[in-house]
Amino acid sequence: ERLAAVLDDRPSALWAAPAVHGPGEEDHAPGPPYPEDALPGTALMLRREPFLALGGFDPLFRLYHEDFDASRRIRAAGHELLRVPEVRFDHVKDGRSARGIARRELWYALSWSAFVHRHEDSHVRAAVRVARSRARSVPAQLRDGNWPAAGGIAAATAAWPVMAVLAERRRRRPWDGAALDAWLRRHRAEAQHVEL
Question: How far apart, in Å, are the Cα atoms of 189 and each of 49, 55, 85, 94, 180?
Fold first, then answer.
């Protein structure tokens, strides 16, 4: 209820998110709602119609970074993103199998490379940024004995050129409400309507 009340009080806000607690999460001190540059999609409340008019979540980012891409589009359209630290969400991250770890790292690395190539000003800077990250992350995972994670990241590295091309295509034809409508027409049979 508090997230909805915050959105009602701030018409310029499109998303409201609680303080997210858990391993690897930022620790948010209690206090009044405040604007953020980007919000993770872990837990949030949103204004549905304006969000869909901006294209909703871009399917280029299958599992990760869709929230940060949408955050950029929301702010570019003049809307606010609000953190509501008095509301708490506990994000538990455990119990993954080796296969689950490999998949998570694969999708995370694929989406991150697409995000960098989509939003970096220069193709060269994007390529250097991704290459440096992979050159650090795969050896680090191997040193830690996390073979599934290293394998997932390595597989994503092999697919990196494909993600760069897809991201460049998205840069030329940005994702918006019209793109979402066209995507839904093509994928209507696969799309699932969830009534809340």
Answer: 22, 19, 39, 33, 15
Mean pLDDT of 114-141: 95
* Amino acid at site 162: V
- Alpha-carbon distance 53 to 79, whole Å? 13
Identify residue 82 by its one-letter amino acid code.
L
What confidence tens digit (pLDDT) does each residue in 138-152 have? 999 999 999 999 999
Amino acid letter, residue 141: Q
CA distance 116 to 90: 28
**Count of CA atoms in the C-beta half-sphere (13 A) of 180:** 13
Dihedrals phi, psi of 53, to nearest 5 degrees: -65, -30
- The one-letter amino acid code at 68 reads F
Q: What pTM was computed for the model? A: 0.88
Give dist(CA 57, CA 35) in Å, integer. 20
Residue spans of alpha helices (H) in 89-146: 98-119, 123-143
Q: How far apart are CA 122 and CA 117, in angstroms?
A: 8
Question: Which amino acid appears at position 66 of this protein?
Answer: E
pLDDT, position 188: 79
CA atoms of 170 and 126, how far apart (whole Å)? 15
Is 101:110 a contact under the CB 8 Å cutoff?
no
SS3 at position 180: helix
Of 146, 117, 144, give the one whose Cα is nearest residue 130. 117
Q: Is the pLDDT of residue 131 over 90?
A: yes
